[in-house]
Amino acid sequence: MQAHLPAVNEIITQGGAKESLAAALEGAPVVGIYFSAHWCPPCRGFTPMLAQFYKQANKDGKKIEIIFVSSDRDEEAFNGYFGEMPWKAVPLGASGPVQTKHGVRGIPCFKVYKADGTEISDNARGEVMEAVDGETAEDQCIAWA
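-> structure tokens emitted (145 positions)
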């Protein structure tokens, strides 16, 4: 399957290396795009929950990959916040077109897609919170796939 997410062209890893979208999503049937920012209190509350979901879902093999799209205002804030996350990101300078293409009007926002770009959920925050509380993250990813 060809990896495709509208307006997402370049990915960076935790180490700062650039990666193609195909490489970033390899083996993941589901991908989440997480729109967030360090300065946003609701985001700061949701990020640890999403990280727990990510780790639960992937504990027995890759079920989901998450791509962070930042609304941070500078590289220092972006790097600090991204450093708290276990997934990959769109470079800070490329965030605006991704947010526009995906119709993001507020953050935090967590959209879920199949790796081919087919949208599954416009904002899956509630599903993530329920799955973390019930320790059913892996089941939720299977349902999305």
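DSSP finds six helices and seven strands in the chain.
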